[in-house]
Give the backbone structure.
Amino acid sequence: QRAGLFSDNTAGHMLVRDLGGAGAVNAWAASEGVTESVFFTANTTSPTDLALLWAAEARGSLGGAVAHAWLYPMLTGTSTEAGVPSG
């Protein structure tokens, strides 16, 4: 949880490494219909690709209940949940 709150994304890169590297993540994304994105190496994406992945996750077709139980608290319980502070 602390990694999600305060990380410079080192934890995310460690997770990608554990999943087989950027190539494996990009191959998986392509298998899900992502056509305009390259994750972690060039780290470019499109609104269409992100919407495709988020919609599939929201429907439960990517990770289902287990992913929802793990992913959503991680994404919403951040130190900047209310937005970037003024100033």
